Amino acid sequence: MTGLRPWTSAAPDHGALSGKSFVAFCAVGALTLLICALTGPDSDHLEEFYTGYGAVSPLRSGLSIAGDYISAFTVLGTGGVIALCGYDGVMLALSTALSLVVVVFLLAEPMRRAGRFTMGDVLAHRLPKRSVRVASGVVTVVALLPMMLVQLADMGRLMAYLLGFSDEAAKTGCVVGLGLLMIMYAAIGGAQGTAVVQALKTVILVGSGIAVAALVLHRFDWDPGALFDAAARHSGVGPLFLRPGLEFGTDAGSRLDMVVSCLTVLLGAACLPHNTMRMYAAPGALHLRRSMSWAASIVALFMLIMMVVGFGATAMLGRGAIAHGDPQGNTAYLLGSRASLGSHVSTAESLLFMLVTTAIVLTVLTSVAGMVLACANALAHDVLATRHQGLTSRREMNLARLSALGIGVPTVAMAALWQQHSLLPLAILSICLGASAIAPALVYGLFWRRYTSTGLMATFLGGVATVLVLAPGTRLISGTPFSVFPAARLDWFPFTTTGIVSVPAGFFFGWLGTVLSDRARGRPTKQQDARRRPEYHTEEALSRWPENRSASLRGDAGTRPAG
User: pLDDT tens-digit profile of 92-113?
Assistant: First the structure.
């Protein structure tokens, strides 16, 4: 979001909106901070800070998990891609929703069994070394920092616009104000307090989204086909808006790029640490399955809302007006919500629009607070607490709170400095790191018994390095109308994400590191290891029982079967 331009002609009086929005934002900020303080952990209960315990219903737990998945990038970025690119944007939205399915069926229950507080706990379950925990903590921070910068910078500018601020100092003040509130959420509320606010945010966001989607459908006589046809007519590209290729292209390579991008989003979003940290709080497998089912249903519902509002924005305002508001479409959800109200806005409709804007601000606060909390937990529990053995719960919690401050302050400073630049590639960078480094480590660590700490280090280093080498040459940096430098031709790597190379590379480096470390230490092969098991000799003897019995009857030196 490089610049925000004035509302369309359908907008309400901006001065009145600014005053009401300012009061609403202040009230919501104060109320949610009070909720964090009241529901936050006690000073000596470490589990409450890291996980919030599991003494909540599956519905409330599902609302919190869904709140982690529905980030500001999802609301603003995905909504913009749907409004500007049609079919291609819908595919990316479906990838976000399906990522929860990956977690439910592949990772959720093994992670709950193996982990206690962090990803480091999961990996150290089979690889009990401090280096494993330290590497996990570092990768957690590296993967989440770009996403935090994107959401905080974009939301600071958007909030400044909603409040009627235009000078750079006011925009910087909004970024700093949101950032400080986010740090207080994480440091005061911990996992328990932020979970309550996440659940509240999810209810407000989905509830207001249902109302807006209903208004959009009402304007088209409740006919989705009419909505899609109107969106195609006003898109400027006709039927191509409803076909694949508007963002990625129509040739074979471009279609492959779309498939790879969707799979990367699916895998990366599923494995980012702030999305998985609440699984450790589940008291049992049944509770976790019910919670994840609620979360998946809520996220799928919100993706449907995003599709309706995104297509509605294009149908009612036109693709050009949305791109004029923001070249990357980050204002599409707000513009579509406002356009659904019509030209004559009642008091109730004004309140609904205020509720939408407040929900978006609350979304960025809670999502970035969750990321800060995941980073702080990793630093405190996996890095600092393992260095100083025997820490009390109170001291470790204080370390976690100081870690939240240490992560949050530099993040706010960088977001304030870089807010004028397009930071969208940083969000994709986080997703690629999740898919290329974290996903292979979790899959190997949970399901491959021979996986070694050397293999884990190779997975992290190889996956991260591959992403960092390839990312500057992707289409997000240059070569397309939606890239950072659309006029430049620096896209030597002809894909939008790095997943087609970096994800296999992460798995390959993990396998290679494990195999080489096995040989260096003289670990037995799979066949040799099987021969060392007691049951192997029993099975072998039983299979040779007739031969051994004949030899024994003849008086030869035979071997009787064991047992």
Answer: 888 888 887 777 678 888 888 8
The full DSSP string for 118-182 is: SHHHHHHTTS--HHHHHHHHHHHHHHHHHHHHHHHHHHHHHHHHHTT--SHHHHHHHHHHHHHHH
Please choose, from the candidates 464, 459, 461, 458, the residue with its C-alpha nearest in 3D space to the C-alpha of residue 432: 464
User: Is the confidence at residue 31, as pLDDT, over 60?
Assistant: yes
Strand-pairing partners, residue 485, are 478
Q: Which two tokens stand for residue 395?
A: 């001291």
- State the Rg of the chain over Cα: 26
Closest CA to 443 of 69, 114, 106, 105: 106
Say how far apart CA 416 and CA 412 lie, in whole Å: 6
Specify whether the CB–CB gap between 370 and 198 falls below 8 A.
yes
- Are 360 and 204 within 8 A, CB to CB? no
Q: Please tell me the pTM assigned to this model.
A: 0.84
**Helix (H, G, I), strand (E, B), or coil: what is residue 478?**
strand
Residue 288 has pLDDT above 70, yes or no: yes
Distance, CA of 337 to CA of 322 (rounded, Å): 12
Residue 249 has pLDDT above 60, yes or no: yes
- Which two structure tokens, joined as six digits, stand for 364? 């960025």
Structure tokens at 497: 């994400």
Paired with 478 in beta bridges are 485
CA angle 502, 506, 507 (to 5 degrees): 125
Ramachandran bin of 4, using left for φ above 0, alpha for ψ from -120 to 50, beta for the remaining angles: beta
> 136, 438 in Cβ contact below 8 A?
no
Can you spell out the DSSP letters for 48-115?
A: HHHT--S-S-HHHHHHHHHHHHS-HIIIIIIHHHHHHHTHHHHHHHHHHHHHHHHIIIIIHHHHHHH-
pLDDT tens across 477-533, in order? 776 666 667 677 777 888 889 999 999 999 999 999 999 987 777 655 455 444 444
